[in-house]
Design brief:
The complex is a heterodimer of chains A (about 260) and B (about 190). By secondary structure, chain A is of the alpha+beta class. Chain A has 3 domains: about 5-50, no CATH class; about 60-115, no CATH class; about 115-264, Immunoglobulin-like. Helix content of chain A is about 40%, strand content about 25%. Chain A has helices spanning about 5-15, 20-30, 35-50, 60-80, 90-115, 125, 140-150, 215-220; strands at about 120, 160-165, 165, 170-180, 185-205, 225-235, 245-250, 255-264. In chain A, strands 2, 4, 5, 6, 7 and 8 form a 6-stranded antiparallel β-sheet that branches. In chain A, strands 1-3 form a two-stranded parallel ribbon. Chain A is elongated, with a radius of gyration of 42 Å. Chain B has 2 domains: about 1-90, Orthogonal Bundle (Rna Polymerase Sigma Factor, Chain: A); about 95-190, Arc Repressor Mutant, subunit A (Orthogonal Bundle), CATH 1.10.10. In chain B, helix 8 crosses helix 9 (about 170-185). The chains are: A alpha+beta (about 260), B mainly alpha (about 190). The interface of A and B includes residues 12, 46 and 73 of A.
């Protein structure tokens, strides 16, 4: 071992980081080399000085201060309800808040159709409201989107009407809805015969009937509080094939009550 | 029960709601944490604040701490990180003049005078040499200073230092060697 090499090993030797074999070689060199021994003594002294540096007394009362601050933090956390949920990732909070807002919006927008007292009218004539809608945008129909998606093509157009009301006399009525194509030909008809006691009637007419089954139609009138018979006449063709002004005729007890127009 | 196991049982007790038990850990480790911080920052007031912040931060993160870590080393890790942040924020004034730095720091600090076996003259010499060593440590760049402080004020193994500083053990060795080289040059007059 030469002096240069030993010089590099001296600190590791003092720190006890060398193997026995290398340590013995270093020791053998130190017995023979005065300058390396001097260097060893210097390093050893410095290490000893650093190891024996006096410990400093910390500021008095650190633990009391820490515990007091922790107590204060906990009291504040107790006051601040949200602070208890700090462990919840922000994304989850935002998503929950967005969901909450969406739920509120849906509730507020849909509630009038179902519960609003001002919808109490004596006759159906006054109760009819027509709302052209888009399946993608109308929350009311979004719930049915999944079913529709399974059966309908992306380019399929939807036309429909939502009409709501509460009939004060729960009597039997004949309720008929006719869709008339822009070319004046009948597209389809749906008739209800029975007691419409209350609630909202909704109706959707659309699409290639080959993709549209009875169950879907029932879905579309699910919200009607209807106790009776429904007759659905299969439609002809697809809405897509007839762009223009569609007409919707609503008959109550075989008498034309309302005519609505919808652009497709 | 080992020292570390005792610490972890106190931690468990804290997690179960016995916050007051945490005071035991603070009392146990306030001195080593303070000494590390002071040796790194060289400011008594700031060291006191950082020591408190270390324990507060540790308490807030008790649930995240991994049990394979020695509790004391975990505290040292938090403390060195806080010191690093402080150092970045505002570099402590460390003059090359040893006399000056000693004058504004060590003279104001109460030491543990445990070298009772020495006669008064030897004590005086030792104290003078220690002051020079402290001044030299203060003048080291921060990356070397923290290695020296952890190694010699807390007698931590290379592996523990590597864990605390999150660096490979080889780098601990290299930095320790470099720090020694600087210190030997600085302290040539007393070595």
């Amino acid at each position: 071992m030469d002096c240069h090499y030993v010089g590099d090993l001296l600190l590791d030797y003092i720190e006890g980081e060398l193997s026995n074999e290398v340590s013995q070689k270093v020791e053998a060199h130190l017995r023979e080399c005065e300058s390396c021994l001097k260097e060893f003594v210097r390093i050893q002294k410095m290490v000893n000085l650093m190891k024996t540096l006096p410990s400093i007394n910390p500021t008095p009362g650190i633990s009391q201060k820490v515990m007091a601050k922790l107590g204060k933090e906990e009291r504040l956390a107790g006051r601040n309800f949200l602070a208890k949920f700090k462990f919840i990732p922000k994304k989850v909070i935002i998503a929950a808040a967005a969901f909450g807002v969406l739920a509120c919006v849906l509730y507020v927008t849909m509630t009038p159709f179902v519960h609003r007292p001002s919808f109490q009218f004596q006759t159906w004539a006054a109760t009819v409201q027509a709302v052209p809608f888009d399946l993608e945008e109308t929350g009311w129909w979004a719930r049915r989107k999944k079913i529709a998606d399974e059966r309908l093509l992306p380019e399929d157009k939807y036309i429909g009407v939502i009409f709501g009301g509460i009939l004060n006399q729960p009597e039997e009525v004949n309720f008929l809805v006719k869709w008339i194509r822009p070319d004046g030909q009948p597209f389809n008809e749906t008739a209800w015969k029975g007691r419409i006691s209350a609630g909202l009637c909704s109706f959707m007419s659309n699409l290639d009937i080959s993709n549209y089954n009875e169950r879907n139609v029932n879905e579309s009138v699910l919200t009607a509080s209807f106790d009776g018979e429904m007759i659905f006449k299969k439609q002809k063709g697809r809405v897509n094939d007839f762009p223009g002004t569609w007409k919707l005729e609503i008959y109550i007890n075989d008498k034309l009550n309302t005519t609505l127009q919808i652009e497709v | 029960m080992s020292n570390n196991n005792e610490d972890w049982s106190v931690v468990e007790s804290c997690l179960n709601g016995d916050r007051q038990d945490y005071a035991l850990l603070v009392k146990k480790y306030e001195r080593p944490v303070f000494n590390i911080v002071y040796r790194l920052i060289s400011d008594f007031e700031i060291a006191s604040d950082i020591t408190q912040e270390t324990f507060l931060k540790a308490y807030r993160s008790l649930r995240q701490v991994r049990e394979e870590f020695k509790f004391s080393n975990w505290l040292f890790k938090i403390a060195t990180n806080l010191c690093r942040d402080q150092f970045k924020k505002k570099k402590p004034v460390v003059e090359i003049s040893l006399d000056k730095s000693i004058a504004v720091t060590e003279s104001m600090i109460p030491f543990d005078d445990s070298n009772n076996s020495l006669d008064p003259e030897e004590k005086l010499v030792l104290k003078e040499e220690q002051k020079q060593v402290l001044g030299a440590i203060e003048s080291l760049p921060f990356i070397y200073r923290k290695i020296i402080v952890l190694r010699y004020t807390q007698d931590l193994a290379y592996k523990e230092i590597a864990d605390i500083l999150k660096i490979p053990m080889g780098r601990v060795k290299v930095q320790l060697h470099r720090a020694h080289k600087i210190l030997r040059n600085e302290l040539a007059n007393i070595l």
